[in-house]
UniProtKB/TrEMBL annotation:
One of its GO terms (cellular component) is membrane. One of its GO terms (molecular function) is beta-1,4-mannosylglycoprotein 4-beta-N-acetylglucosaminyltransferase activity. It comes from the Bacteria. GO terms for biological process: N-acetylglucosamine metabolic process. Pfam families: Glyco_transf_17. Signal peptide: none annotated. This is Glycosyltransferase family 17. InterPro entries: Glyco_trans_17 (IPR006813).
Length: 256
């Protein structure tokens, strides 16, 4: 029987991973998660994920394959490091079967597995059309189509190449992108570690300035926005797990 495999990369986003497991654990057969011992910006870090999963999600630990990437490239280019860590999910796919559905997403890109099962192509890599939210789970920004999914037999390229590959057939309403849904201090830490190091400046990574931008609903990096961010009701279009646990996520929900 074909399996559903969720592949992602991790950098200390524990709240988002906890949410991901809550939404997907009854939909996904296997999780493949890469964790590196250095950031994309080149700073050393400890492996934390295996111990955290054993402590907080022991019920699914046997379905989570954590790939500890301890051989990150020495090349200082953060994009090369990011691609290397993303491609390392392939190390957890060696036992996959041709008909398995493999999904490649970032940690804050949550797939709608039902839609993907219905729409996955028999002979191509699909783009996943996702609802895009910013700062809050229900502060709508627009659409997002970078994640990918395909049958394992249709993955002739690397996971990195599959992401954002042009001319992919699109599966509509295939998930939710919850971007920067975290406290200002965590956003600052993310900026210090991620690939866009040209944005790692005091004007952007100061938690107080981040908090002020969130309150104004302004872009995190002062980019021109296409339309205003819009608070929307937490309705049936959202994952049931968020709706049923809205009290636990109250700090990251905004009143429409």
């Amino acid at each position: 029987m074909a399996k559903i495999i969720d592949c992602t990369l991790f950098h200390n986003e524990f709240m988002m991973l906890d949410l991901r497991f809550g939404i997907l654990k009854n939909k996904v057969d296997k999780f493949v998660i890469t964790e590196a011992n250095s950031t994309f910006s080149g700073h050393s870090k400890e492996f934390k994920l295996k111990a955290w999963i054993e402590e907080h999600h022991s019920d699914i630990a046997n379905r989570v394959d954590v790939i500890e990437v301890d051989d990150m490239p020495s090349n200082p280019n953060p994009w090369i490091k990011e691609a290397y860590q993303r491609n390392a999910v392939s190390r957890g796919l060696d036992q996959s079967h041709e008909s398995d559905i493999v999904m490649f997403l970032d940690i804050d890109e949550i797939p709608n597995v039902d839609r993907i099962e219905e729409g996955v192509s028999n002979d191509d890599i699909n783009a996943l059309d996702q609802s895009f939210y910013y700062y809050y789970f229900n502060l709508y920004k627009g659409r997002w189509t970078k994640p990918s999914a395909c049958l394992f037999r249709n993955l002739p390229v690397s996971p990195q190449m599959a992401r954002g590959m042009p001319l992919r057939p699109i599966i509509k309403e295939a998930g939710w992108h919850f971007s920067y849904v975290m406290p200002p201090e965590a956003i600052s830490e993310k900026i210090s570690a991620f690939s866009h190091q040209e944005l790692n400046k005091s004007n952007f990574n100061d938690p107080k300035k981040i908090s002020a931008r969130i309150q104004r609903r302004a872009d995190l990096f002062d980019r021109k926005q296409q339309g205003d961010l819009k608070a929307v009701p937490l309705d049936a279009s959202f994952p049931r797990f968020i709706r049923e646990n809205s009290d636990a996520y109250a700090d990251f929900l905004v009143t429409p």
